[in-house]
Amino acid sequence: MKNTIALVTGGFTGESAISFKSAEVIERNIDREKFEVYTIIITRERWYYVDENALLHNVDKNDFSLTIQDKVIRFDAVFIGLHGSPGEDGKLQGYFDMLGIPYNTCDAATSAITMNKGYTKAVVDGVKDLYAARSVQLFSHTPVSPEDLLKQLNLPLFIKPNSGGSSIGMSKVKLASELPEALERAFKEDSQVLVEEFIAGREFTVGVYKGKEGIQVLPCTEIISSKEFFDFEAKYTKGMTEEITPGRMSEEEVKRVGVVAAETYSKLNCNGIVRIDYILEEGTDKFFFIEVNTVPGQTETSLIPQQVIASGRTIQDFYTELIEMSLESVKKLVV
C-alpha cells in the first residue's frame, strides 16, 4: 500500500519563487510506485491543492487534511520543499509536531535557530577545526552607526539579512561610504542584520543528511562565481557560476571537511538533508563557517541534486530514503 505524501511549497517570502521550482523537481523525482503525492501550496491567504482539472481544494488546517469529492485525504508524511518562512524557520515544523505528522527536515527548534545566522554561529562555536569570521549582529531597534561598526570590524565586509536565504538583500562592502546603503538594503529584508568580515579563499558547500546508515556527507561542491560573490542572481541563473562537484580539495581536506560537517550537523541536532556553506581560507587551509541551510534548494541549478548524482545515487532513491526515514521516525515513537 502506498504512503500518502504532502509536498509543501509556496511560502511567505521572496523565496517562494525558488520553492515552486524546487517542488517541480521534487515532484518529478518522487517514486510513484511507493508514494501518492499531493502538492500543497501555502500562502498567507490560503493553503490549497490544485487537482488535474485545475480545481482548487482548501486544506483543513485543523488536521492538515484535504477533502476531494467527499473523500478525506490524510497524509502519512510531509516533504517540506518550502524555502524561507514558514517552511524553513520552524513554524511549519511546530505545526506538524502538534498534529503528529512526520516530515523530512530538522525539527522546530533547530529550524528556528539555523534560520538566524548569528545564533547558528554561536551554537557551532567549539566544533573542532571549524572557524568563523568576526561579526556583529545588528537589530533594527538598536541601530549602530557605520563608524562604530568600523571600530569593531575591518573592511571588506559582508552585510546579510540575519534570517534571510538565497542571498536576498546581501551586499559586499569594500568602502566605508558603501555601508549605509548596504545596511538599508539588508534591513528591508529583516529586522536583524549580520555584518561579517570578509574571508579570502575558495567557497564550498556540502550536503549532509541522516540516512539509514547514519549521518552521511555528500561530495562537496566548489563555487566559482562570475560575480563579486555568490548572490541570488549567481545562484539561480545558469552560466553565472561554475560549480565543480566534487570540489577541488586534497584527500586530507576532503576527510577533514567530512568530519567537521558531520559534527556540525550533530551539534545543531539536524535531521533530513541540510547544506553547509564554508570558505577554505587562502594560505591557511582553515574551514570558515558561512551558514547552514535546512531546506536546501532542489531546482535544476541547485547544488544538492548535483552532489547526490556525484555520490553515485539517483535523485529518486535519495528522496525515497528521506521520506522513509521520516516515516521510520513515527514507528520508533509508536514502539
From TrEMBL:
Q: Where are the transmembrane segments?
A: none
Associated pathway: Cell wall biogenesis; peptidoglycan biosynthesis
Pfam family of this protein, just one? Answer: Dala_Dala_lig_N
Q: EC class of this enzyme?
A: ligase
This enzyme catalyses: 2 D-alanine + ATP = D-alanyl-D-alanine + ADP + phosphate + H(+)
What does UniProt give as the signal peptide span? none
A GO MF label = ATP binding
Summarize the protein's role.
Cell wall formation.
* Keyword Ribonucleoprotein recorded: no
Keywords, comma-separated and alphabetical: ATP-binding, Cell shape, Cell wall biogenesis/degradation, Cytoplasm, Ligase, Magnesium, Manganese, Metal-binding, Nucleotide-binding, Peptidoglycan synthesis
Which metal ions or organic cofactors does this protein require, according to UniProt? Mn(2+); Mg(2+)
Its cellular-component GO annotations read: cytoplasm
Give the binding site residues for Mg(2+) 1: D277, E291
State which Enzyme Commission number(s) the record gives: 6.3.2.4
Q: Which residues form the active site?
A: E15, S166, S302
What are the BP-aspect GO terms?
cell wall organization; peptidoglycan biosynthetic process; regulation of cell shape
Q: Where is the ATP-grasp domain?
A: 128-324
Where in or outside the cell is it found?
Cytoplasm
Origin, by domain of life?
Bacteria
User: Can the keyword Aminoacyl-tRNA synthetase be found in this entry's annotation?
Assistant: no
Q: What is the protein name for this chain? A: D-alanine--D-alanine ligase
Tell me which SUPFAM superfamilies the record gives. Answer: Glutathione synthetase ATP-binding domain-like, PreATP-grasp domain
Q: Which InterPro entries match?
A: ATP-grasp, ATP_grasp_subdomain_1, D-Ala_lig_Van_CS, D_ala_D_ala, Dala_Dala_lig_C, Dala_Dala_lig_N, PreATP-grasp_dom_sf
Binding, Mg(2+) 2: E291, N293
Any note on cofactor binding? Binds 2 magnesium or manganese ions per subunit.
Q: Which residues form a coiled coil?
A: none
What gene codes for this chain? ddl
